[in-house]
């Protein structure tokens, strides 16, 4: 459809795939209720049960600032794990094919060898 109605291929893709999702999101924003007392589809009994359940939830958690959160060992460990995962993903996804390509391999060989890394990672998980 590239060039039809003077639209580029990416513009057609946006119209076909993304625009309906955006419209559905806006429709949900307008039609869905924010709280149980505004939900028209609930019976009065269901509405009261939900409101009672929400009122009984605890909201006494203390809010902490950034530095207080960084004093928690769990936060630091999860931050390190996320950082290592991101760096290794970029390393395999971006740099491995470039390194393999520098070894004078063709595109098919680079693709298969790069896929082997993901295969072994999957087995390791």
UniProtKB/TrEMBL annotation:
Originating species: Bradyrhizobium stylosanthis
Protein name: MFS transporter
Transmembrane segments: 12-33, 73-96, 108-124
Membrane-related topology note: Multi-pass membrane protein
Top-level lineage group: Bacteria
Annotated keywords: Membrane, Transmembrane, Transmembrane helix, Transport
InterPro entries associated with the record: MFS_trans_sf
Keyword presence, Hydrolase: no
Cell compartment(s), UniProt: Membrane
Principal location listed in the UniProt entry: membrane
């Amino acid at each position: 459809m590239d060039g039809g109605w003077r639209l580029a291929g990416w513009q057609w893709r946006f119209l076909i795939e993304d625009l309906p999702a955006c419209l559905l999101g806006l429709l949900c924003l307008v039609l869905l209720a924010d709280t149980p007392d505004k939900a028209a589809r609930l019976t009065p009994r269901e509405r009261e049960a939900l409101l009672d359940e929400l009122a009984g939830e605890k909201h006494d958690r203390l809010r902490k600032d950034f530095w207080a959160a960084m004093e928690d060992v769990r936060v630091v460990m999860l931050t390190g794990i996320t950082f290592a995962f991101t760096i290794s993903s970029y390393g395999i996804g971006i740099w491995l094919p470039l390194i393999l390509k520098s070894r004078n391999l063709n595109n098919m060989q680079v693709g298969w060898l790069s896929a082997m890394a993901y295969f072994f990672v999957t087995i390791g998980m």
